[in-house]
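Whiteboard transcription, Tuesday session. T.W. wrote the C-alpha cells on the left side:
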C-alpha cells in the first residue's frame, strides 16, 4: 500500500485576492466544486492507497479535517508544523512517522494545491513507478512541458532516456528556474521535463538519503517527531526541536545530491496554478479567449479572465483585452495578463499600508464553522455566524462588548450565566457585557445567526475562554 503525504502549507499570494494567508488556495474552489486539497486527496485514494498523511500548520488543522470529512476521507495522521520550514523537514517528518510502523512502506508526496485533470492516468503513472521505489530509488515525477515556462524548475534526463516513456527513466540533474531564452533551448532539446514536486519512495530510502546528505536536517526533525504530542487527534511536532530545523527544500537537501534517482514522465496534464494566467488557461477559454466565472459577464472582450466570488457583486467587463479581474467582497484585482506573476507585489503593498485584505479572508474560519463581518462601525459590528451541526463555540466572556444574537437558520443552544435555553429561528437573545456565555448547534443542520456587537472595543482578542472543546488557549 502507498501512503499519500499531502503538503498543506503555503499562502498562495500569486492568487490573491481569492487566496490569502488565512485561507490559501489549496482550500478554495478554484476549478470545481471541490477544493484543490480535496481533489488531491481523492486523486490519491482507492485501490493501492492507504489513508493519507497530512502535514500542515496549526491554523489549518481544522480546515483540513473538515474538508477531508466532506469527501469521506479519514486521515492516517495530521502532523502539525510549529512553523513552516519548507519541504525537506515536512517530508522527512512524514517519513519518520511512517517508518515508526512501516519502514519499508512507500509514500507518495505531493503538494495539495495542484491540478491533475486525469486522475486515472496519474494513478497509473504512480503504479508504474512502484517497482523502482520498492527497489530503493527516489522517484520524482516530471511533467511533459507544453511551453518554455520560466516559473518552473526542470529535470534533465540522462543520455539515452526517453521523455515520453511510461516507466521511470534515469535522471541527470535538477535545473533551476530558467530565463526565457534558456527555457526555449531546453524545450527544443526535448530531454527536459517540468519538476512537479511530486515524489515516490520508501520511508526507509528517504531517511537514508537524509542520513547521507542532510544530517543537519535529520537530527532536529527526528527529535521533533520523537517528542511530538497528541492533541485532539493531531500530532504536534515539538516546537523546541523544530526551532532548530533548517529552512530548506527537499530538492536542495537530498534530491540534487542523491545517486539513486529516477524520473517518471507524465504527459496527461498538470498545473500548479501558480498564477491567474494558469487559472485562465486551465479553466478553458472560449473562442475569444475569455473565461467568465461566478457572477461575471464579458462583453466584447478578448483574452480576459473575469471572476466574481461574491453573489452580491456582478462584475462586467466591456472591451477588455488581456485583462485579469477578480472581485471579492472586500477587494478587487485588475491586472494585465502579462503581469500575472506580479500579483504578489499587491500583497506586499497592502501589507506595507496595513490593509487586512493582504492576509485575511472575508470569511474567518473556525473549528466550529465560520463568520464574516457584514457591517463595521466605530462602536458596533454586525456578523453572520455559521455553526456546523454538533459544533460549539467556547464558553467565554468579553471585557468590552455586549452582543445580540438573532437566529435565522436552525436552532441554537445558548448558555448565558447559569441559564441554558434553545433559541429558534426568528428568536433572539442578549449577552450583557462581561457575561459568561456559549453558543452551540444541537441540531443536524447548520445553524446561522446574526450577531450585533456594541462596545468600546470589538477585536477578536477580547475573548476570555473558560472551556473549549477544540483546546484553543
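and on the right, the sequence the group agreed on:
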Amino acid at each position: 500500500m502507498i501512503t499519500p503525504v499531502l503538503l498543506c502549507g503555503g499562502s498562495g499570494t500569486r492568487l490573491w485576492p481569492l487566496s490569502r494567508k488565512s485561507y490559501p488556495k489549496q482550500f478554495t474552489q478554484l476549478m470545481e466544486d471541490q477544493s484543490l486539497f480535496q481533489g488531491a486527496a481523492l486523486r490519491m485514494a482507492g485501490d493501492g492507497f492507504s489513508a493519507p498523511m497530512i502535514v500542515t500548520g496549526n491554523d489549518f488543522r481544522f480546515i483540513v479535517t473538515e474538508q477531508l470529512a466532506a469527501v469521506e476521507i479519514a486521515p492516517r495522521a495530521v502532523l502539525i508544523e510549529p512553523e513552516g520550514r519548507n519541504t525537506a523537514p515536512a517530508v522527512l517528518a512524514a517519513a519518520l512517522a511512517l517508518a515508526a510502523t512501516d519502514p519499508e512502506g512507500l509514500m507518495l508526496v505531493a503538494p495539495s494545491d495542484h491540478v491533475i485533470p486525469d486522475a486515472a492516468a496519474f494513478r497509473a503513472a504512480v503504479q508504474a513507478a512502484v517497482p523502482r521505489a520498492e527497489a530503493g530509488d527516489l522517484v520524482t515525477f516530471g511533467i511533459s512541458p507544453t511551453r518554455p515556462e520560466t516559473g518552473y524548475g526542470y529535470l534533465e534526463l540522462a543520455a539515452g532516456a526517453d521523455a515520453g516513456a511510461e516507466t521511470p527513466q534515469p535522471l541527470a540533474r535538477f535545473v533551476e528556474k530558467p530565463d526565457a531564452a534558456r527555457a526555449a533551448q531546453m524545450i527544443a532539446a526535448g530531454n527536459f521535463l517540468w519538476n512537479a514536486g511530486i515524489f515516490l519512495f520508501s520511508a526507509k530510502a528517504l531517511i537514508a538519503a537524509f542520513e547521507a546528505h542532510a544530517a543537519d536536517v535529520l537530527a532536529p526533525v527526528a527529535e521533533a517527531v520523537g517528542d511530538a504530542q497528541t492533541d485532539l487527534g493531531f500530532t504536534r511536532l515539538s516546537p523546541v526541536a523544530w526551532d532548530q530545523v533548517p529552512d530548506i527544500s527537499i530538492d536542495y537537501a537530498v534530491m540534487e545530491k542523491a545517486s539513486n534517482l529516477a524520473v517518471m514522465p507524465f504527459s496527461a496534464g498538470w498545473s500548479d496554478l501558480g498564477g491567474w494566467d494558469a487559472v485562465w488557461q486551465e479553466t478553458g477559454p472560449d473562442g475569444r479567449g475569455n473565461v467568465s466565472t461566478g457572477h461575471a459577464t464579458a462583453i466584447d472582450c478578448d483574452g480576459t479572465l473575469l471572476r466574481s466570488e461574491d453573489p452580491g457583486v456582478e462584475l462586467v467587463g466591456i472591451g477588455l483585452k488581456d485583462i485579469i479581474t477578480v472581485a471579492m467582497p472586500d477587494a478587487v484585482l485588475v491586472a494585465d495578463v502579462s503581469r500575472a506573476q506580479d500579483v504578489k507585489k499587491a500583497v506586499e503593498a497592502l501589507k506595507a499600508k496595513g490593509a487586512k485584505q493582504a492576509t485575511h479572508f472575508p470569511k474567518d474560519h473556525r473549528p466550529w464553522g465560520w463568520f464574516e463581518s457584514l457591517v463595521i462601525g466605530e462602536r458596533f459590528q454586525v456578523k453572520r455566524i455559521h455553526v456546523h451541526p454538533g459544533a460549539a463555540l467556547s464558553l467565554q466572556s468579553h471585557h468590552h462588548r455586549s452582543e445580540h444574537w438573532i437566529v435565522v437558520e436552525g436552532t441554537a443552544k445558548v448558555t448565558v450565566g447559569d441559564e441554558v435555553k434553545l433559541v429558534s429561528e426568528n428568536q433572539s437573545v442578549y449577552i450583557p457585557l462581561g457575561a459568561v456565555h456559549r453558543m452551540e448547534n444541537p441540531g443536524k443542520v447548520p445553524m446561522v445567526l446574526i450577531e450585533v456587537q456594541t462596545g468600546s472595543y470589538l477585536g477578536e482578542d477580547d475573548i476570555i475562554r473558560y472551556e473549549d472543546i477544540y483546546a484553543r488557549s
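Someone added at the bottom: The longest helix spans residues 119-134.
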